[in-house]
TrEMBL record:
GO terms for biological process: L-amino acid transport. It holds the Pfam family ABC_tran. Residues 6-238 form the ABC transporter domain. Belongs to the ABC transporter superfamily. This is ABC transporter ATP-binding protein. It comes from the Bacteria. SUPFAM superfamilies: P-loop containing nucleoside triphosphate hydrolases. One of its GO terms (molecular function) is ATP binding. Keywords: Amino-acid transport, ATP-binding, Nucleotide-binding, Transport.
Length: 238
């Protein structure tokens, strides 16, 4: 692994006294694709929400390039270069594709370069470019997911956190999402990919962490996890 740009240590979180994340430590190196995996309710979203400033950890540290950012509000975390695309494609359905991107473009980190950035983004997502004047709610599920990811890119993040981008998509679109993750990574963006789809995730990710009941149950390279007997039996049905 390259030296970590993000290092989280001993993260904990509980919802009204019920622990959701009990002890999570993870690192992401510059230029990596790292997968954060696990079943429903394992604590994946809670973990990345703590990394992105959506939730304040009850305990633990989040070091970003050496600075502890745990507990900073999400907009401050975004200014430092970490963007979260939350689960569920939270786009504004009545607004056009372009307007959805413009909202993100108002962030301080994005504002100055927005017009140039927009053209780059439309270069990556030609279907969104064609549909820029269309209400976002009229896009297909896959296109809405692309828009949610595109919006995350507006602020030029160094680390893009994607929370279950393939959820609810047809197999062909799932493949398109994973291809996109590779493509964005090749463009220099470090990616933390939250997924229940272990098989596809471990094929694109250099390394992965598997969460169970709010703890890291195992971690390793994508190839090693794909070969791991426990992973194969428990998550891959082999
Ligand atoms: P999923 O894939 O279903 O999103 P996850 O691995 O992302 O699962 P979390 O969403 O982090 O898991 O949830 C971890 C635990 O915390 C679960 O038991 C969940 O029910 C609980 N939880 C999550 N959000 C809340 C909330 N807002 N209030 C109460 N409990 C919550």
């Amino acid at each position: 692994m390259s030296p970590p740009i993000l290092h989280a240590e001993g993260l904990r979180y509980a919802y009204r006294g019920v622990p959701a994340v009990q002890e999570v430590s993870l690192s992401v190196g510059e230029g990596e694709i790292v997968a954060l995996l696990g079943a429903n309710g394992a604590g994946k979203s809670t973990t990345v929400n703590m990394l992105a400033g959506v939730l304040r950890p009850a305990a633990g540290r989040v070091l970003w390039r050496g600075e502890d950012i745990a507990g900073l509000p999400a907009h401050r975390v975004l200014e430092r270069g970490i963007a979260l695309v939350p689960e569920g494609r939270l786009i504004f359905p009545q607004m056009t594709v372009l307007e959805n991107l413009q909202v993100a473009g108002a962030a301080p980190r994005a504002a100055a370069e927005f017009p140039r950035r927009l053209e780059e983004i439309f270069g990556i997502f030609p279907r969104l470019a064609e549909r820029r004047a269309q209400p976002a709610g009229s896009l297909s599920g896959g296109e809405q997911q692309m828009l949610a990811i595109a919006r995350g890119l507006v602020a030029r993040p160094e680390l893009l956190i994607l929370d279950e981008p393939s959820l609810g998509l047809a197999p062909m679109l799932v493949r398109a999402v994973f291809d996109l993750v590779r493509d964005l990574n090749a463009r220099g963006i470090t990616v933390l990919l939250v997924e229940q789809n272990l098989h596809q995730s471990l094929r694109v990710a250099g390394r992965g962490y598997v969460l169970e009941k709010g703890r890291v149950a195992l971690s390793g390279t994508g190839a090693a996890l794909l070969e791991d007997p426990y992973v194969r039996q428990t998550y891959l049905g082999m």
